[in-house]
């Protein structure tokens, strides 16, 4: 028996070493052992919120996920936490909002991102049950293949950053190096050239974006179930003293002209969805800030948009941050 225990102990050594490696480099700070996460994944943001539930919360998809929270706080005078993440559907945004209110019943303000894209019936992903199960079960987190790949990637990125710091080729801290940037100093004609050699009127990443989302938007129909749920949720929050603001982030002009108008989405939004939303907001006591349709900012698409949906984090997003959070002050 003693020999068997020794053999089992030897076999356990590699597992213990890998577990130590995993805990040290997993980017989501799942175990709360570091000052913050090196990730904007939903599990990282939700775990951070669980550790310190704040009173001012942002939720939505990737267009609300990359705000400079320090700048948002400076402009609005409020300390925001961000639970927005790339690809979040309206269903997932509302599920997260409900979860956040359970964690912090004294919530003061919620900002919910919305868009014609997330209102589409065919865009209705549902990943919250898996996320919540993983949050409750550390073993599920450690054994998850995706999170193990993320950990290995984080380790590789850390070694690259460490070499750069030693060589003096970067002044960024490790935390700064993790900030997701969607920005470009576009060069003409290199960044404006189409596959056939012709030149786009705007940089290629922006010019090609409508074709990327066009197939998803074909046959667009309002997700009536989640839209009704949004209106009910916002009104219920206001009854409980939680301020709710529904925000439509801006889109580039070519998305409007090449996707929304040809597919009839613009007509549906302007004649059906928005009038009902504004009427419900007036009756229910919540706010709507619509930068997608009725109050489109005068941004320079070619300079201030990284692609058709996402503002350039250096040249566009700071301006929108001041505009939006100035309204939320």
Give the topology, please:
Layout: H1 2-25, H2 42-51, E1 56-59, H3 69-76, E2 80-82, H4 90-103, E3 109-113, H5 128-136, H6 138-143, H7 145-167, H8 174-177, H9 204-207, H10 209-217, H11 224-239, E4 243-248, H12 253-260, H13 265-284, E5 287-290, H14 301-304, H15 317-327
Parallel strand pairs: 1-2, 1-3, 3-4, 4-5
Helix pairs in contact: 3-15, 10-12, 11-13
Give a written overview of the molecule.
- This protein is of the alpha/beta class and 329 residues long.
- It has helices at residues 2-25, 42-51, 69-76, 90-103, 128-136, 138-143, 145-167, 174-177, 204-207, 209-217, 224-239, 253-260, 265-284, 301-304, 317-327; strands at 56-59, 80-82, 109-113, 243-248, 287-290.
- It has a five-stranded parallel beta sheet, with helices on both faces.
- Helix 3 links the parallel strand 1 and strand 2 (80-82).
- The longest helix has 24 residues, at 2-25.
- The radius of gyration is 22 Å and the shape is globular.
- It starts with a helix and ends with a helix.
What is the structure about, briefly put?
With 329 residues, the protein is α/β, with parallel strands linked by helices. It contains 15 helices and five strands.
Structural class: alpha/beta
Biggest pleated-sheet summary: 5 strands, parallel
The parts where pLDDT drops under 50 for at least 5 residues are none
The helix-strand sequence is HHEHEHEHHHHHHHEHHEHH
**What proportion of the residues is helical, as a percent range?**
40-55%
Number of helical regions? 15
Tertiary shape:
globular
Strand order of the largest sheet: 2-1-3-4-5
Supply Rg.
22 Å
């Amino acid at each position: 028996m003693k020999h068997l225990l020794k053999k089992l102990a030897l076999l356990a050594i590699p597992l213990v070493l890998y577990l130590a490696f995993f805990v040290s480099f997993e980017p989501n700070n799942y175990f709360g052992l570091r000052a913050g996460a090196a990730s904007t994944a939903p599990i990282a943001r939700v775990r951070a919120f669980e550790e310190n539930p704040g009173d001012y919360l942002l939720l939505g998809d990737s267009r609300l996920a990359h705000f400079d929270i320090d700048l948002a706080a400076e402009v609005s005078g409020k300390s925001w936490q961000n639970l927005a993440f790339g690809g979040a559907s309206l269903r997932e945004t509302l599920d997260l909002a409900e979860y956040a209110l359970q964690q912090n019943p004294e919530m003061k303000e919620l900002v919910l991102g919305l868009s014609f894209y997330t209102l589409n019936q065919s865009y209705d992903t549902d990943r919250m049950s898996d996320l919540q199960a993983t949050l409750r079960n550390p073993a599920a987190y450690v054994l998850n293949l995706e999170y193990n790949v993320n950990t290995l990637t984080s380790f590789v990125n850390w070694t690259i950053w460490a070499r750069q710091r030693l060589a003096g080729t970067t002044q960024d801290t490790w935390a700064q190096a993790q900030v997701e940037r969607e920005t470009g100093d576009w060069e003409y004609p290199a960044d404006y050239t189409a596959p056939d050699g012709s030149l786009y009127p705007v940089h290629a990443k922006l010019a090609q974006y409508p074709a990327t989302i066009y197939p998803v938007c074909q046959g667009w129909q309002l997700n009536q179930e989640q839209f009704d749920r949004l209106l009910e949720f916002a009104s219920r929050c206001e009854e409980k003293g939680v301020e709710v603001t529904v925000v439509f982030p801006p889109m580039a002009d070519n998305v409007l002209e090449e996707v929304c108008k040809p597919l009839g989405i613009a007509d549906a939004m302007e004649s059906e969805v928005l009038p009902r939303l504004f009427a419900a907001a007036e009756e229910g006591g919540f706010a709507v800030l619509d930068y997608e349709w009725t109050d489109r900012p005068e941004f320079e698409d070619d300079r201030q948009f990284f692609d058709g949906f996402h503002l350039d984090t250096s040249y566009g997003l700071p301006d929108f941050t001041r505009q939006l959070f100035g309204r939320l002050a």
